[in-house]
Every structure is written in C-alpha cells, then in structure tokens.
Write a structure and sequence with these properties.
The complex is a heterodimer of chains A (about 425) and B (about 625).
Chain A lengths: L5 E6 L2 E7 L7 E6 L4 E5 L4 E6 L25 E6 L6 E3 L6 E3 L3 H7 L8 E6 L10 H16 L4 E5 L5 H11 E2 L4 E4 L12 H12 L6 E6 L6 E6 L3 E3 L8 E3 L6 E4 L7 E4 L12 E2 L7 E5 L7 H4 L6 E6 L10 H9 L3 E6 L12 H9 L2 E2 L5 H14 L3 H5 L16
Helix pairs in contact in A: 2-3, 3-8, 6-7
Chain B lengths: L7 H4 L2 E9 L22 E5 L13 H8 L3 E6 L18 H13 L3 E2 L2 E2 L1 E5 L9 E15 L2 E12 L3 E5 L3 E5 L6 E7 L6 H17 L10 E8 L6 E6 L5 H24 L3 E2 L3 E2 L10 H8 L3 E8 L8 E3 L2 E2 H11 L6 E2 L10 H10 L7 E7 L1 H18 L6 E5 L5 E5 L7 E3 L19 H12 L3 H9 L3 H9 L4 H17 L9 H12 L8 H10 L5 H8 L6 H14 L1 H7 L4 H12 L5 H16 L1
The chains are: A alpha/beta (about 425), B alpha+beta (about 625).
Amino acid sequence: MNAGDRVRVERADQTHEGVLMPSTTGEHLVVKLEGGYNVGIDRDEADVEVLESDVYDVEDAQAESDRSTIEFDDDLPTVSLISTGGTIASTVDYRTGAVTAQFDAEDVLRAVPDLAGMANYRGRVVANILSENMTPDVWQDLAHAIHEEIEAGADGVVVMHGTDTMQFSASAMAFMLDTPVPIVFTGSQRSADRPSSDNVMNAVCAVEAAKSDCAEVLICMHADESDDRCALHRGVRARKNHTSRRDAFETVGAKPLGEADYSIDGDPEITFRREHRERDATELDVDPDLATDVELLKFTPGTDPAFLDALEGKSGVVLEGTGLGHVHTDWIPRIEELVADGTTVVMTSQCLEGRVCDRVYDTGRDLLDAGIVEGEDTLPGTAKVKLMWALANTESVEEAMATSLAGEIQDRSVPWT
Amino acid sequence: MSDADYDYEDLGLVAGLEIHQQLDTAHKLFCPCPTDLREPEAAERTFSRYLHPTKSELGEIDEAALEESMVDREFEYLSYDTTCLVEEDDEPPHRVDREAMDVTMEIAQLLDASVADQVHVMRKIVVDGSNTTGFQRTMRVAGEGAIETDEGTVRIEDLMLEEESAQRVEETDSGVQFSLDRLGIPLVEIGTKPDIRSPEQARDAAERIGMLLRSTGQVKRGLGTIRQDVNVSIAEGARVEIKGVQSLDDINDIVRNEVRRQVELLDIAEELQARNASVGDPQDVTEVFEDTDSGVIGGALSSGGNVMAVRLAGFDGLVGREIQPDRRLGTELSDHAKRHGAGGIFHTDELPAYGVTEDEVAALRDAVDAGPEDAVALVADDPETTSLAIDAVVERAEDALELVPEETRDANEDGTTRYLRPLPGAARMYPETDVPPVEPDPSEVDRPELLTEKVERYQSEYDLGAGLAEQVAYGEYMPLFERVVADGIDPTLAAGTLESTLTELRRDDVAVERLTDDHLAGALALVDGGEVPQEGLDDLLRALAADPSLSAEQAVEQEDLGGVGEDEVREAVVTVVERNAEQVESEGMGAFSGLMGECMGELRGKADGDTVSSVLREEIQERAG
C-alpha cells in the first residue's frame, strides 16, 4: 500500500474509496474521496484493500513534463531570474502538509505566464531554501551569481526570495555589489499555491523594475492590500513589518523610493520619488567577503548581562538599544571591556524610526566613552549585515559605519519625503 | 407533450439534493469575527484583487476554474468594523470554530451519519471572486446517513462544514464588487445520494432536511440563509447541478423543467442526427452588417468591434425550439456566449428582427454558405470577446448534436435555469495546509430534539394548543422560548408573546426586528414576576423597539409602566365609580363592563385586569347594595 494507490477502506459501518494520500500518518490513513475531499481514518480500526496501484504519481503531480520553451526576442531587454526559494515559487509539501519551496526559476515563468513578452529571461537557482534558513555563505553565492549574470549581459536581475529575511539578503547584496543595473528582490506573502497569491503582481512589477534605470538593490512588494501597485523599497531601508499582510514591507524613515503601477495588461509603470543611482553609472564589481562572527543583541529591561559574556572575542556586535541608543548602565563597563578587546560595538535603536544620539543623556555619553560606534539611523538588521561587510572590506570600520555606503543612512531626517 | 405527462420512472429520473445552511454561531468559521450581515453603505474600506487558477495536489487544473479565469476580472471587496484580515486573505485562518463543529456533529446525529475520525480542511478552488483566497475552505465531517420521505429512504452521502462565500454586491466597470460580511460564516452542506425519483420527493426530502437543521436551534433564518442545489439527470441525459434554489416551493418546478430540458435536448439531438447536421467554422461577417440599422450590431461595429458567425448545418428551426418555458436551444448558445463576455447571440431562427433586415439575413446566409435547412448564429462585440464567444457557441452547438452536456446551472426565479459553468471535479480540491486536521469527538454533543418532537412536548408538558406549539417550535423564536421557559417563565405567556404579540406589533409597523433576545427575555421576566402587568407588555415592547439601547428595566422606568398597588387601583376605581354614580345606582352590575374599560384607561395599562375587575365589582356592589 503506497501513496497514489486507489484503495477501499472499511471502518465500522463505513466504506471509503479513494486515493491514498502521502499525508497519511502512523495513526491515520488519509484518503482522497471521489469528490476531492480528504478524510482521515483511524488506522487501527481500518481494513484496507488496494484496488489499483499507482493511480496517481502524487510526488510529481506538481511538476510538468514538458518544459516551456522561451523564445528570444532581440528587441527585449534580458532579465535574470534568480531563485533562492520562498513562497513566490512554492507549493504544498504533501508529506508534511506545509508549504515548501520546490520550484526553480524556470518554473516561475510557468507559474506566472504574465511574465512572457516582458523580457528575455535567464533562469538560475542559487538555493532552494526557506528564507529563515538563509546563511551568509548563501549571500556570497548569490552575490557571485548576480555578478556573473550581469557580466553575461543581464540588463537587470530579479531575485526571488522568501520574505522573512529578504531585507537582510538585499542589504548584503547592496554592500557586496557595485551594480550598473537594477537588482530587484521580490517574493510573496500568500503562497503561490493559492489563486489569490500576490506572486503574479509582485513578479511582474519586479521584472519591470529590473528594466528601469535605477541601478540599486530594491525590494518590490505590494504597496497596499490591493493588487494595484508595488512599492520599490531601497533594500537597506526596508523592513518586514507584518507577519502576513501583502504590504508587509515598509521603507523606514521615508516613503518608498519608487512605485510600480500595475495594470492587468502586464505593463506596469515605474516611477521614483527621489534621487537614485542611475543605470550604467557604476562599474560592475563584487566584494563578497564577510566577517561572520557578528551578532545583533536587543536590550530590553531585565536582559541577562551574561549575553555580553557570550560575545567575547567576536569581531563585531550591533546593539539594539532603547530610545536614542541606550542600555542599562550596568552594561557599560562590560561593553568597555569588549571594545578594549577589539570588538566593534555599534549602537542602533529599537525605535527603528529616527537617529541614534548618545550625546543627549549621561548613559549615552558613558556608552560613547566606552567606545561604541553610533549607527546613525541605520536599521539594526541592516547594521548587522553592514558591520559584517565593513569588518572584512574597509580600513576604518568606525568611519564606514558612520558613512552611507548604499543609502542605508539618511543624512537628513526628512521622513515625509 | 406537456411536462405533466412525463412518467418519471420511465424516463429514469435520478435526483439528489445539496442543502446549504448558514449556522447561527457567535463567531465565523476561521476567525473570531461576528456572523453579522451588514449594509454595503456601512463599509469602512475597500480593496481590489485578481485571481489566478492553480493546480490541485494531483496536478490537475479544474475545468470550471479554468473557464472562470478566461475572463480577466478585477474584484473589489468591502470590509467592515466586523471583519478582519482573515476575510481579506491577509492573515492565515485561525483554527476551526468549536461551536460550528459541535453544531455540525449535532446535525450528523440527526442525519444518522457517522462522524469522521479525522476531518481535513480542504480548499475548493473558486475563482469567481466570491472568496478572497480563490478557494472555499470546506471539510467533510460525516457521511453515510439517511432520512425518511413519504416515497422512501433517501441516503445521505456526506455532511460538510464550510465557509460561506462573500456576498456579490454589484457588477463594476472592470469586474465585480463583493461584501466581506458574509464571508466565513459557518455553512453546512448536506448532500444526498441520487435516491430521489420524483419532483415531489425532492421537495419532501428538502423539507425534511430543513426541519432537521432547524431542530438544532443554531441555524440562521431568513432569505438566503438556506440554499438548495438540485442534481438532476434522466436515463439518456446527463448530470446537471442546479445552484441556488432559494425556496422549497421552487424545487418541484426546477426538477420538472430540467427533465423537460433534457428530454427536449435529446429530441433535438436525435433530429439533428437524422438530418446529418454539423457545425461549421466561425467566420468574420462584419462586411454584411456595415450599414446595419441593428442597434446592437451597429453599436459594436462603431466602437471598433466585429461580427463573427457560424453555420449550423441542418439546424434550421431547431435553434428556436423551446426547451423550457420561454427558453430555446438558442438561449443555451447565448448563455455560453455571455459567459465569455458577449451580450448574447442572434440566430436565423429569430431573424429578421432586432433591426436586422431580411436582406442582411440573406447576405449572412450567403457569407457562410448556409442553405435553407441551415441556421446561422452570430456574435457582435469587440474582436477579442467575439472570438471567445463564437468559439463557445460552436462548442455548445457541437454538444447539441449528440447529448445533454454535464454542467452547473443557475436557478432562475421562474423555475427555469441558465448555464453557469462546467461541472466542477475533484481537481478543484486540495488541502488547506494552514489549518491542522481536527479529530472531532461526537460523544461531546447530544442529539438535539427534533422540531416534531418539540411540538409534542410543548403540548404535553406545557399545555400549549397544537397550533401554537407548532408555531413556536418551527418559529424563529424557538431557541429563545426554550431559554426563557428553562428560566421559569410561564410557557403560555412566553409562547403567546413570542408568536401572537410580536406578530401583532409587526403588523402595526413596530420594528420588532430590533428587539434582541435579551429585550424579550427581560420583558417576559418582568411580566412573569408581576413587576409589570400583562397589559403593559405591549407598551414595553414598543418602547424597546423604539429605542433598542434601553434594557427592559430602563424602558419600564422611562415609560412608567411599573405595576400599581391595590390602593392606587381602588383610588382609580372609586374615582370612576363616583363619576358615574347615577349609572351605578340605576344599573347596578349592569354598569360593570362599561366602567371596566374606563378604569383600565384611567390606569393606562399599569394594573392587572383581574385586580381591577375584582375591585370594581366590590365598589359597585357596595353602592348598588
């Protein structure tokens, strides 16, 4: 008896006939009935008869045998679709019942036929992971892959990525790569296996943004709960601020850099609110080295100072302090020791909105004396990625952390723009 | 022959029912929002979405979903202060509402059905916009039950618990507007096996199931809260699912008319085969209508459209053949064209008409090489629509050559039906992975008392008359009646108030629907406890209906409806008797009835009639004596 077999299950006075599903567990047989309903039957109570073996190839049901052939059109720009996994290209795993990433970039074209005719596509899979499983070495693979794609002539790159850690990967690309073309991250908040998925509009808008003149690392996701426009966030300033909404991503400290106005005929209009790096203004380069022993520690009332002990010997630490950039005064001597020991300690704020300023209160002044570096208005997550990169690639980390390298610091606080 | 002459047994009529009933639970099936319906004007926000069909877990795309998605439509949704992100498909569903599962298990007991060991929530693909997700969440809770009808047992195939869809508000320029208040209300679906053999039995079975459902006391009442789908086929015909029959009284007609339609379609197929009929390829015939006076065709052409026509060889006269009251084969073709965005079709069985001239008909026949034994169907619209619509017409006409197509149809108000979409299959179902399976325990719920049993008990236990007992048991206030009687209220008072008093007030244009269960229970308790005389109940309910923000106690105080003591009654009676001293002296007890009314008026309903009457009797006797 295997998943995909047609079976008859007798249990007490009931008979169920249907296809045995892979979601069957030790306790329950799961049978798909004629009408499509699944029903779980107590295994101990059931008598099973296999009527026909392998009626369905359940494991491969989602795959398609004929690969789509994509025609090349000289008049269209070339966009590289790089897949790292995530909900935009995911399907249901019928063993666990959960949604997992299973598609490669080519599948995205089949999943989103609306992309056809917008560009010539190159497909590439860098990873096939859920974004919570992302690691710095995958960032490095991704940076190399993007570099190769652009070198090979891509006029823009779209990275399909799980939304959970998208802002971290986007920040990593922003620091690692000097890019002459747009690098656009996109994903979906509602999985691709549902008709209401946001993947179609996000993917279409991302490709359009990848054809635009903005040579920066962007995040392209729904701007509101309607399927009407995507926001284009500067990756280093973006944050996932909602667990489930389509418009979970927000630019912190400003309005999004740009917008893709979606219309159903597949021709979104891209506009930008502010200055941005223009296409071809930069020579392509990649510096993928990272110091991976960097931690982000959030201070809240009562946080055990022992956490600081665990940071001993690390190259860098980003603190997510309170308010203007504070921690309990008892922490300060320990921080001073860390700094003296060679650890770079960067202060950011859990307020998220606004700039760190440790010159206003005594605690702040004491922290400065202890040797912390102010992270300006850099987001804590972005600051962590930046510190990893700066420790491996810059002469003066302190100076780098105070300078906007990829738009992560806004020199003027003008959140209404 | 008229349909009354059909021998249903002979025709091999097989019918089944699907009954959908909204549950009256506190919360929606997958979120804690209330199950209240709202007016579209109360909407606080709107948003818009598109839907795209997806593959099932077995790798198939549902045909019905695919056809629906051919039409690119934007869906606009209205949300309220009574809806949340779950209805907007911007938050995963919460766990299955327990109350809804309990009521469903009660219904399973009434249907004699077995509850599943493990219930799996499924997604049923529906991309017409009525579900923000693009699917309806549904679960098979029980199966293999049975009900009795006068014509024999009808077996129950399954009992489902699912979420109600969003209410369609209106068509917009670019799509359809839906209201989210209804989305997610728990809905049970009961499917019978195809055991029904006559239109009467179909109605009987539906009525029986309706009674069982209402016996739980936890189903919604009113228009649209129960819907019947009817599956009908005859021996040579095909299974046709007819959706949305609103009233029990329509079921007979629906079944009769569908049998007739299938009989007529088979007849047409036979005739077409005898004529060696065939369907041609669509052709552009725009030229024929360049100078047309037809408003429809001219309108389409002047806005850049075209006209496509198809030769239906051997169809002459049959396209116009009636198959249901005022519906022809041509209407079927037209329904298919409409599904693809066209306004409809014209065909030669009905032309010349609608501004199309005889010359144009002749030129049209010429253009597609149609002879006198042929018919021609045409569509005029924008080129994209025209092409989709004429293909749909061709497909339907080809089906007419040999069979009755399996399909889903929509019930019209006059008992006829119209084409809705292909019959959905198992391919539209896949697991709802956001909600873990549920292992329900049927021993946690008791079998509800049937309404028929309640009628008996109300008579034997509460001494209600047979008529009133039935009115209460089958009426919308049954659960409230049981609640207040359990709290010790006199059953006769409760029954009379909830059935007669409220009916009278309603006839008097009092907004009875504004009275909550708490209003009614409070008012009954005050009367039963003697704090308000029975005569004051009417005014009390009027006051509460006028200002539903009041509690029953507050209304009594505001309207000064509290009962008066015997001293005050005597004072009032004495005043009346003395005012009429002459009459009392001359007529004695003969003056009683006239004065009784005057006394009651003096006390403005604040005293109990029995008390007034006995005091009045004493006072008259004293003076007359």
